[in-house]
Amino acid sequence: MLLSALLKGVGEISSSQDVEIENVTDKLSDVKKNTLFVCIDGDSFDGNDFIPYAEKKGAVAVVSERKTKAKISVKVSSSRKALSVIAANFYGNPAEKMKVIGITGTNGKTTTAFLIRHILEFSGEKCGLTGTVEKFTGEKAVSSALTTPEPMELQKTFCEMTENGCKYCVSEISSQALSQSRADGVSFCAAAITNITPEHLNYHLNMENYISAKLRLFESSDFAAVNIDDKNIYNNVSRIKCRCVSVSLKDRLADYYAENIISSSAGVEFDLLHDKIYKAFISLPGIYNVYNALCAVAVCSEIGIDTKMCVDALKSFSGVAGRCEKIPTNRDFSVIIDYAHTPDGFQNVISSAREFTENRIITVFGCGGDRDKSKRAVMGKIAGELSDAVIVTDDNPRSESPVRIICDILEGMNGSKCHYAVVSDRKDAIGLALKIAEKGDTVLILGKGHEKYQITANGKIPFDEKEIIGEFLKQDEKIWNSH
C-alpha cells in the first residue's frame, strides 16, 4: 500500500516521497523491509531513539511527533492516534463494515461482552469478540494477551471478522487502551459502562484521570448504556454527549430496571422492566451479574434485537471461564474461581457467595506485583471481614518481593476476626483450602480466573487453577479409596 494511502486522515507527504509500505509497526523488533516505523514516546522508552536502527532494518518512512533526520518523516500531533488511524487504513477500515459495540468499566466488562455476543448469536447474528479472556473472529476463539489489542492487532482481528462474515463485534475497551488511543478511528454503534471503582491508579495516577479515560469511549459512540447506580458514573453522566439509556436496580424510572431479585448458587432470577415486565434468569450467581445482564439487554435491545429475545437468550448463557466459575468437585463443598482483583470485585464476589453458602467461606487470594499498592490492604480488610477463613498467597508477584506484597495485604487484616494463614506458594494455598473445606463450605479462589500462568521475577510459569484443583481432588479420592 502506498504511504499516501496509509496517511489518509493523518498527514500529507509530497508526491516525490510516496513509497510502497508492506509493514507498519511501532516496535523495532518487528521492523523489516518496506516498513513504516511509528515512533511512540513511552514511559520508559522513546521510539525516536531507534530511528537509525529501524532504517538499517528496512524502515523506509517514519511517523513522529518531532522533526527527525529520517529519509521520509511525517510529523503528527500524536503518534498513538496516528498509529490507530494508519492501522485501520492498512487493513481497509474493517470496522466500518461491521457494527462495533464497546464495553468499558472497572469490573464486569468480560461478562457483559460475552453476554452481548451470546444474545446476538442467539438472535441469529454472527458476532466477533475481543476481550480479556479470548478473541473470537467468527471461526475460532484464541486466547487474548491484552484486554484491548494494540492498533495493528486490533485492526487485523477486525479484518478477520469481516472476512468470516461477522455483522457485529463486541470489544472490551480498557482505560489504558482509551488513554493510549488504541481504538481511535473506530466508530461504535453502541457502548456500555458497567461501573467505575479505583483501579490502575499506578498508571492513571488519580481517579479523575481514570474516569476521563473511561469516558473517552463515548466520544465516538452512537449511544451509551450506563449503570446509574454507580456514583462515579451517575456524577459524570453529563459529560457523556451521546444519547444515554440507564440501567438500575434502585431507580424504577430507569430505562432498564430489575426487581424481585432471587439469588442462589445456580444463578439469579429477576423481573426486568423495560416496555413491560419480563421474567429473567441468568445462571451466574450474584446481584452484580444482574447489572451485567441489564447492560447487555439494554445494548442489544437498543440496536434492534427484540427485548423478549434478549431476555430469553440470558437463560441459555453458560458463563465465562474464570468469572464466578463453579468447579465440579463431587464433594459436599463448593469451589469457585473468579478473576476478582479489585476491592469492588472482592466485595461483590464474597458477598454473593455469602447469599448461598450454608457454612463457611474460605477465601484464597493474593495481589499482583508492580501494580497499584494502595488496594492491597483494602482487599485484605474486605476478605477478612466477609470471609470465615482466608489464605493469603501469591498472585503474579512479577518483579516485586512476594513477602512485601503479602505484608501489605496483612496490614488490612489487622483486627480481623476471621482465621487466616499465609501460604506463599499458590498451589499449596489451594491445596490447604481444599483440605480444610467441610460440608456446606464455599472455597473462593480469587484473582487469576481464566489465567493459566503465574508471573514471577523469572518470567511466566504454567499455572492452571482448574488443573491444580483437579489434581488435589484426585489425590484426596485415592486416599479415601485406600481406606
The counted number of beta strands is 23
Fraction in beta strands: 15-25%
What structural category characterises the helix and strand content?
A: alpha/beta
- As a percent range, the share of helical residues equals 25-40%
CATH topology of the largest domain: UDP-N-acetylmuramoyl-L-alanine:D-glutamate ligase
Give me the CATH superfamily of the largest domain: Mur-like, catalytic domain
Terminal Cα separation, in Å? 72 Å
Described by the principal axes of the CA atoms, the overall outline is: globular
**Rg from Cα:** 24 Å
Integer count of domains: 3
Order of strands side by side in the largest beta sheet?
Answer: 8-7-6-9-5-10-11-12-13-14-15
Biggest sheet, in brief?
11 strands, mixed
Label this structure with key terms.
UDP-N-acetylmuramoyl-L-alanine:D-glutamate ligase, eleven-stranded mixed sheet, globular, Protein-Tyrosine Phosphatase, Chain A, Udp-n-acetylmuramoylalanyl-d-glutamate--2,6- Diaminopimelate Ligase, Chain: A, domain 1, six-stranded mixed sheet, 33% helix, 483 residues, 23 strands, alpha/beta, 3 domains
Describe the protein's architecture and organization.
There is one protein chain. Residues 478-483 have low confidence and may be disordered. Strand 19, helix 14 (402-411) and strand 20 form a beta-alpha-beta unit. The protein has 3 domains: 3-78, Udp-n-acetylmuramoylalanyl-d-glutamate--2,6- Diaminopimelate Ligase, Chain: A, domain 1 (3-Layer(aba) Sandwich); 94-314, Mur-like, catalytic domain (UDP-N-acetylmuramoyl-L-alanine:D-glutamate ligase); 325-482, Protein-Tyrosine Phosphatase, Chain A (Alpha-Beta Complex), CATH 3.90.190.20. The protein is built from 16 helices and 23 strands. An 11-stranded mixed beta sheet has the order 8-7-6-9-5-10-11-12-13-14-15, with helices on both faces. A 6-stranded mixed beta sheet has the order 16-17-21-18-19-20, sandwiched between helices. It is globular and about 75 Å long. The protein has 483 residues and is α/β, with parallel strands linked by helices. The longest helix is centred in the C-terminal third of the chain and has 18 residues, at 465-482.
